[in-house]
Amino acid sequence: MIGAGAGILKVENVKVNSEEGEIVVNAPDTKNTKAPEMKSRRPRGPLLPMLGTESDATVKKKPAPKTPPKAAMPPQIIQFPEDQKVRAGESVELFGKVTGTQPITCTWMKFRKQIQESENIKVENSETGSKLTILAARQEHCGCYRLLVENKLGSRQAQVNLTVVDKPDPPAGTPCASDIRSSSLTLSWYGSSYDGGSAVQSYSVEIWDSVDKTWKELATCRSTSFNVQELLPDREYKFRVRAINVYGTSEPSQESELTAVGEKPEEPKDELEVSDDDEKETEIDYRTVTVNTEQKVSDLYDIEERLGSGKFGQVFRLVEKKTGKIWAGKFFKAYSAKEKENIRQEISIMNCLHHPKLVQCVDAFEEKANIVMVLEM
Hints:
The protein has 377 residues and is mostly beta strands. It has helices at 54-57, 276-282, 297-300, 337-352; strands at 2-4, 7-9, 14-17, 22-26, 37-41, 76-79, 84-87, 92-99, 105-110, 113-114, 121-126, 129-134, 143-151, 154-165, 176-178, 185-188, 202-209, 216-221, 225-228, 236-245, 248-249, 259-260, 301-309, 313-320, 326-333, 361-367, 370-375.
């Protein structure tokens, strides 16, 4: 059947004469009324497909939805390590993952100075982050590392503290013999200027005498003083001390002066009477020092030339503003709470070691990452 506007045409009502190129359509009989006959002719020849115009054949595609441009963003540090603690000699990798509008520059800093690559330190930057590698960590690599990332819209930074743990430094200074008797003496010394990142657990005391002339381990103790017994009066002795923590034993301290035991000769009494003023001048002003966190060392002392430096920090000549007295200022770098606590313990020990031959601590200050001990010259 063929659909036609007013009704349905049956196939029997349609005749195709292919030879004549003629189609005859008889309209259906409606109410017995004879419908007219319709004819359609075409030119002779094969039937050809109907072709539309080029515009009719073109398929119009829907335009692709426009993707809005990404908004420009300042840099962000989305991944960064926590504080690190490694053994001396181990490798360290500090990686910061960043995001934001490119280009982003990444800079590693330490003590406010840009870290330069060297044989042991490598820096790798990419669009997604920056990695700082220390191939063999040593004590000098301890400190606060800061990653600074920047683009045209702003900057961000993050920091991490690195602690390299190792055996301690040797006990500072020279051991001092005091309270010398017929066969004994008391040996005192300072703690290590750096404990290797782990608290010093004990000290090893070594002895040398003028007869055997070899160093031997005498004893192990926990405090910074030891009473040496059973010494002989026919020889002289020297002492040195090593510090011990969980990571090992330090190198030896400096050697003490040669010391002999025996009864001290009675000092002749001076016939002249000593006035009270003279006695006061010879008295040593021992102080119990607490760390001052309210003032800076520069508030009370003029900081002059540097006298020396070492692994612990630096020593400067100080002039007390109030009295004009000359002191030595020992400036420690202390980034972690553990480092600060170790220095406070050393100050507490010095408060207990009151002896004319021992250097006295007279003041102490804490300023951010610095702790300053004011010592006798």
